[in-house]
Design goal:
The strands form six sheets. The protein has a nine-stranded mixed beta sheet, with helices on both faces. The longest helix has 37 residues, at 118-154. By secondary structure, it is of the alpha/beta class.
Length: 691
């Protein structure tokens, strides 16, 4: 079979060889016709006026010149090039061939035959070069025109490019040349007046940002591409605010690094996301400092399968930890992040464990076996309305779970414990926010106890495997767990205490259960988009920003701090919903209705600004601050914590009332503030071992 195929290939006459023969015939005519045309031009295009000796000299030299020219053209690959892709390389070879043949013609006919008029040499060389080049590049031009016509049939968008810089030029080139592009560039916008009225890649620059709406209507624009990767977040937001009023589909280049790395292509354009409209610069973090903190450390991430926890795992995995332990109660999320990290970091020492942070015996086994150096505690219930109807679960998972994890982190000598908190812990009006405030108080309590060296006062919340509370034993006692491990205080007196810190931030865009995915689903379904209240506002940040803040807090931590982020101005949820509808190519209240459904149980209209915490201190990162915690009595807190834990597990007592006693700033919906009670946030009298 192979021999037969070989014979068939030998017999087959390739199409390019036929084209090469046609080109040779053409070149024979051109190399002779060019110099004959030069002779005709010299004598005013009158054949009878040409002296006989000149005609005889031309015809005598023509055969030698023809053979020489064909040989040179062949050696310089002018017959086997793919002319449909002709470029500067082919043009340079034509120049070289024309130069060599011209020199040969001038010397050959002058020395061996007859000296010809100067104009004969000049006109002949120029005409030959033009004709040899024209036929070859005409093939490329015809193919380009054919492709352009075919491409125009597939074009479904009229595009406006914003930015007439290097990035804009690259995008324009690809839009005009790529067969996969489905948009035709019609106009360019740039704020530099010096560029207005000029052309870039043949496309007019029609004006600055104030011309966007007019140009969109004039040119029938339905797609806008923002090619300004180096512009500030504020400038991008201002331009996008104008663009979204056009109702066009918006796309944006993610960052300037792609331009610097030569990675700028049309495929890098991404749909404009709501976070592009926030108008705040991304938080910058000293990655080298963080890397030093994480290298060769055993790191435990609770809730490692969630939005924040999984991003923490991704960032940590690239910092060469000694071991990364992912702990989550939901096995599907844990499995997904496990498979992702195994693909990206095959050398990573990765352990994925399933369980609940409220199971003290499970946590004891994990801490005793792996001895993590750093703990990032992201496991929590966070949905406000759901926790309002299940307050005991909020206490068990958030408060008791945090206490159990922090307790064993201290007992097993972890160097650092970082709690993921929320801005809803500030003057909370719902049980979820109040539970997170209790979590902050737990880690502050742990930090104070560790620094005072009084671990003996810490009760151990002993949770049975069935989830029932079995008791709260003093740390100095030594009961046995179901696994047969004798629990003893094995902490050295000279051991430095665990550093406990909390990181508090606002709503995270794109996280599980956040408002953006809900709005997107509602828009995809044709609406309506449900907004609780037209005036409700929130602070927002992206998942990478939230994670970078958590990691940086670990680097800054001394113990007992609550790190807060300056996230700029808050955003109205109603505005967010309308922007998202516009970014999706629809008109709010026309194509997609907005429906106001009223505040949910426990939901606040205005979140307090994170910067309002007393005693705010700066860090090296100007966007990260440290809030001074409100002091409270540790012993009293621990007693109330024991009572609250029992009530949540046994289903007895007024959980909301107990939380109110422990969190003075908690104001649950429907409960009046007792007369004469101090204003939330006021400093209270400092007692023994208070924080």
């Amino acid at each position: 079979m192979n021999q037969k195929q070989t014979e068939m290939r030998k017999k087959k006459w390739e199409h390019w060889k036929t084209v090469a023969i046609y080109l040779m015939i053409y070149d024979v005519i051109v190399v002779n016709g060019s110099y004959f045309a030069g002779l005709m031009l010299r004598f005013d295009l009158t054949y009878s006026a040409i002296p006989v000796e000149y005609l005889n000299a031309f015809f005598r030299f023509a055969p030698y010149y023809t053979v020489f020219s064909l040989i040179i053209f062949w050696l310089l690959n002018l017959y086997n090039s793919m002319w449909r892709f002709a470029s500067f390389s082919e043009l340079n070879r034509i120049l070289a061939a024309s130069g060599i043949t011209t020199v040969f013609h001038v010397i050959g006919i002058t020395v061996f035959v007859l000296r010809m008029p100067i104009s004969y040499y000049i006109f002949g060389a120029v005409i030959q070069f033009c004709l040899v080049t024209a036929v070859r590049f005409a093939y490329r031009y015809i193919n380009l025109e054919r492709a352009r016509r075919e491409k125009n049939l597939n074009v479904s968008h009229n595009a406006m490019i914003i930015g007439a810089g290097a990035a804009g030029q690259v995008i324009l080139k690809e839009l005009k040349s790529s067969n996969s592009a489905v948009a035709k560039p019609r106009c360019v916008i740039d704020d530099n007046p010096n560029k207005w009225g000029r052309l870039i890649e043949g496309i007019p620059i029609v004006g600055g940002r104030e011309s966007i709406l007019e140009a969109a209507e004039k040119y029938g624009i339905d797609q806008i591409m923002l090619a300004m990767p180096s512009a500030s977040a504020e400038k991008r937001r201002d331009i996008l605010d104008i663009c979204k009023e056009t109702g066009c589909e918006l796309k944006i280049l993610p960052g300037v690094y792609q331009l610097a790395n030569g990675e700028l292509t049309l495929s890098k354009m991404k749909p404009v996301a709501v976070e592009d409209l926030l108008g705040r610069e991304t938080i910058k973090v000293d990655l080298d400092e963080i890397m030093r903190e994480l290298e060769e450390k055993t790191i435990l991430v609770t809730g490692g399968g969630g939005s924040i926890g999984s991003e923490l795992c991704r960032q940590i995995a690239g910092r060469r930890p000694k071991r990364l332990i992912i702990f989550d109660i939901y096995e599907n999320n844990a499995y997904e992040i496990e498979q992702e990290l195994k693909r990206k970091y095959p050398e990573l020492a990765l352990t994925v464990l399933i369980g609940s942070v409220r199971d003290s015996r499970r946590m004891e086994l994990i801490f005793r076996k792996y001895r993590p150096d750093i703990v990032y505690h992201a496991a929590a219930h966070k949905h406000v309305p759901l926790m309002e109807t299940s307050p005991a679960e909020a206490i068990k998972n958030n408060v008791v779970g945090t206490y159990v994890t922090a307790y064993w982190a201290m007992r097993c000598e972890a160097k650092r414990f970082v709690l993921i908190s929320t801005d809803k812990a500030v003057n909370p009006t719902n049980i979820m926010g109040a539970s997170k405030r209790l979590c902050e108080m737990v880690i502050q309590c742990m930090d104070a106890v560790g620094k005072e060296g009084r671990m003996d006062i810490l009760p151990r919340i002993e949770i049975g495997m069935t989830g029932d509370i079995c008791g709260m034993a003093d740390a100095s006692s030594s009961p046995k767990s179901d696994a047969g491990i004798r629990i003893e205080c094995d902490r050295n007196k000279d051991q430095k205490c665990t550093q406990f810190v909390a990181v508090r931030f606002g709503n995270v865009l794109g996280s599980n259960g956040s408002v953006i995915p809900l709005f997107k689903k509602q828009i995809a379904a044709g609406g309506p988009v449900t907004v609780t209240h037209p005036d409700i506002i929130r602070y927002f940040m992206t998942i990478p920003e939230a994670v970078s803040l958590v990691l940086q807090a670990g680097a800054y931590a001394w113990g007992g701090e609550i790190f807060v982020l300056d996230m700029g101005a808050p955003v109205k949820i109603d505005t967010l919903a309308r922007n998202l509808i516009k970014l999706s190519g629809y008109k709010p209240d026309v194509d997609i209705k907005i429906k106001y459904v009223g505040l949910r149980p426990g939901e606040k209209l205005f979140e307090e600004k994170l910067m309002a915490e007393e005693g705010l201190k700066k860090t090296d990162n100007e966007l990260i601050h440290i809030g001074k915690p409100i002091p409270f009595d540790t012993m009293d807190f621990l007693k109330k914590l024991e009572k609250l834990a029992r009530a949540s597990y046994e289903g007895t007592g007024d959980i909301i009332g107990l939380v109110e006693e422990m969190v003075p700033t908690f104001r649950p919906e429907g409960r009046e503030k007792p007369e004469g009670e101090k204003t939330p946030g006021k400093k209270r009298k400092k007692q023994a071992l208070s924080i």
